[in-house]
Design brief:
Distance between the termini: 42 Å
Structural class: alpha+beta
Number of helices: 2
Largest sheet: 2 strands, antiparallel
Strand content: 25-35%
Number of strands: 4
Helix content: 10-25%
Shape: globular
C-alpha cells in the first residue's frame, strides 16, 4: 500500500446488537465505521468472531468498497443459527 496505513475505525459507540432483529441491527450500525486511507484495488478480509445477521460485515463492506476495496471476504469463527424473528 504505497507506505500509507489504512484502517477502519468505529467512530461511535452503538448499543449492543443482542435482542435486535436484522433490520434494527443494520440501522444500529449504519454510519458506525470510518475508513482512514484508501483500499484501492485491494483484497480485504473482514474477521468477525460470530456471524449472526451479517449487519457488521455488511456495514464494513460498504465503507471498504467506498474506499476502493476490490475484493472482500468475511472470515468468522462461528455462525449462529438463523433466529426466528
Amino acid at each position: 500500500m504505497r507506505g500509507d496505513f489504512a484502517s477502519v475505525k468505529r467512530n461511535r459507540s452503538t448499543p449492543p446488537q443482542s435482542g435486535l432483529d436484522a433490520a434494527k441491527r443494520r440501522a444500529n450500525l449504519r454510519g458506525a465505521f470510518t475508513v482512514n486511507g484508501r483500499y484501492d484495488n485491494l483484497r480485504v478480509a473482514i474477521v468477525d468472531d460470530v456471524f449472526t445477521t451479517g449487519a457488521t460485515a455488511t456495514e464494513l463492506s460498504r465503507v471498504l468498497r467506498a474506499a476502493g476495496a476490490k475484493t472482500l471476504e468475511v472470515w468468522c469463527l462461528a455462525r449462529t443459527p438463523s433466529p426466528d424473528y
